[in-house]
Design brief:
- It contains seven helices and 18 strands.
- By secondary structure, the protein is of the alpha+beta class.
- It folds into three domains: 1-77 and 178-194, no CATH class; 90-160, no CATH class; 195-323, Trna Endonuclease, Chain: A, domain 1 (3-Layer(aba) Sandwich).
- The strands form five sheets. The chain has a six-stranded mixed sheet with strand order 1-14-15-16-17-18, sandwiched between helices.
Length: 323
């Protein structure tokens, strides 16, 4: 039984599939880049984390429009955006630090934590631990500069730590040498929205199968194969123990797309119904073994014909397979 893919799947989602998933939502939304710690910059689409490089290739193909840009800090050496902020002791350069509330005695110049200046009541400054003088008036006898740090390695006390940045390639740099990487905020282009008629057709077929055959049907589902790779299925017909997938190959389908359907079938291990443009059927159906594929040649301009042929075919398949 095929398993729906989770959002952990990342690198295998094709840009064309991303467009269909967005169109399924029927909501115009901005795709905003975000940093995934330890991985880099990603876009979240329908619950999937898509690497920025993959989505930007879709922008070059005209699937997306650029709305604005966001900038992320990157390594000055390798431009990685997977960065870790390091707070170090300025004396010994170690990171074993603790935060303390600082007090400084003006007369002798000693600076330490407030606990060192307290003898009875926690947090109440009373006496300098270095010279022993009583401290009464803040701003005159002593100061409270705020938060500071103590190095547990060399015991140095300081107010301003050394701040460095380290990338996942182990390059270390200071904040003033960090680069900035600009990534676009994207939205679907007008050209992509024209594909919504394809989604409309899938929804018509989905409703017809639910109504006529009382089946559990869902469109544009990401399903994980036996290899662990997620695949976009145009329509999934489910039962308690068997699934049937529906894929649509229209008049613009090339040979590589038909081969992609074969790859999905092998990985998912379920029967496929393929709606295929009648002008392409003779050429492409030779690639599809009838043991694993049911090919339905149709005229995509005639939705009623598609509904009739599909309901008839699905009924014969589910009756034979007990779906």
């Amino acid at each position: 039984m095929a398993k729906r893919a989770s959002s952990e799947a990342q690198e295998s989602v094709h840009v064309e599939d991303i467009v269909l998933l967005l169109l399924k939502e029927r909501v115009e939304q901005d795709l905003v880049p975000t940093i995934v710690p330890g991985s880099g910059v990603y876009y979240v689409v329908a619950g999937f984390h898509i690497p920025a490089e993959r989505l930007l290739r879709g922008s070059q193909k005209g699937f997306f429009e650029v709305k604005r840009h966001l900038s992320f800090p990157s390594c000055g050496t390798c431009r990685s955006t997977s960065l870790i902020l390091e707070i170090l002791c300025p004396s010994c350069k170690t990171s074993d630090l603790t935060r303390i509330d600082l007090v400084v005695h003006y007369e002798c110049g000693y600076m330490g934590s407030v606990e060192e200046f307290s003898t009875k009541s926690y947090g109440v400054v009373e006496r300098c631990p270095k010279c022993g003088k009583t401290l009464k008036r803040v701003g005159i006898d002593y100061g409270r500069p705020g938060v500071g740090f103590r190095c547990q390695n060399c015991r140095e006390i300081f107010q301003y730590p050394l701040v460095n940045v380290r990338c996942d390639g182990n390059h270390q740099t200071t904040l003033d040498k960090v680069n900035l990487e600009r990534y676009p905020v994207l939205s679907l282009s007008r050209e992509s929205w024209r594909v919504s008629r394809f989604v409309d057709m899938l929804q018509i077929i989905e409703n017809e199968l639910r109504k006529s055959l009382d089946l559990d049907v869902s469109i544009l589902e990401m399903v994980r194969g036996r290899s662990g790779v997620p695949h976009l299925i145009h329509m999934l017909i489910r039962s308690s123990d068997k699934d049937v997938a529906l894929m649509v190959l229209d008049e613009q389908t090339e040979l590589t797309e038909a081969m992609n359907v074969v790859s999905k079938n092998i990985d998912l291990g379920i029967h496929f119904i393929v709606l295929m443009d009648e002008r392409k059927a003779e050429e492409l159906s030779r690639l599809l073994n009838p043991q694993y594929f049911t090919v339905i040649p149709v005229n995509f301009q005639n939705v009623d014909e598609i509904r009739y042929k599909l309901v008839e075919s699905v009924y014969s398949i589910v009756a034979a397979r007990g779906v």
